[in-house]
């Protein structure tokens, strides 16, 4: 009898868990849709209203199950650099993901050229005797340590911030002037993802769900919200100016209507037969003034 109760309890538990998972999937789909709408509005504000470059967040931000398996071992970033720039780079196949090894290599070269401020000052002098690829590897390794890039997944995610779709769908690098903004956006997203992953590895399901909702609530960074506030203030002032112009236009139309009525009354007065009986008709007075 006890075993039967255990089996029934297990069946009820599985049924309740399935209902919870279905409800969670439904709510997750809705909240991700709202988050993407917020990001779409953020893109419009940046690109259309401000004329600034907007970089989308990584797709892993919207996946509540993007949690590394316990005990899994990922490829280190130093091994990725050795595969891209080391002696084994010629024999290395394309890395997983949308971008090829050549695109990733070009993106990292761009990062190395534009993010030298993240390296120690004396490092450049120490690397001078080395060949070009070795210098690039050492510089990138120093930059990776500064921004917290540790694994192959981190390198792939980082490279995507410097690659954009070009003509005919061919990937191309972003402009050098946009590198710092792209790097800043990556660091913000990387810190949020890493912080969430570390918490989720040991946290129970409820805590993971709470962390996911918190991440969705902060899908638009605070500095972007400050830009929103500035754009809103500017649009309010612009709306006030337009309302003043509309009121001014209404006043002008009213004055034109009054001028037309006065012109008609004056014309009727000037053409009236009573003027002929006057000693000095108004028409003669007007002619003399002219």
What is this structure, in a nutshell?
With 290 residues, this protein is mostly helical. The chain has helices at 2-49, 77-85, 101-114, 123-127, 132-147, 152-160, 179-202, 205-217, 222-270, 282-289; strands spanning 163-165, 171-173.
Could you walk me through the main structural features you see in this protein, from its secondary elements to its overall organization?
By secondary structure, this protein is mainly α. The chain contains ten helices and two strands, in the order H-H-H-H-H-H-E-E-H-H-H-H. The protein has helices at 2-49, 77-85, 101-114, 123-127, 132-147, 152-160, 179-202, 205-217, 222-270, 282-289; strands at residues 163-165, 171-173. The protein has a two-stranded antiparallel sheet with strand order 1-2. A hairpin with a 5-residue loop joins strand 1 (163-165) and strand 2. Helix 3 (101-114) crosses helix 5 (132-147) and helix 7 packs antiparallel against helix 8. The longest helix is centred in the last third of the chain and has 49 residues, at 222-270. It starts with a helix and ends with a helix.
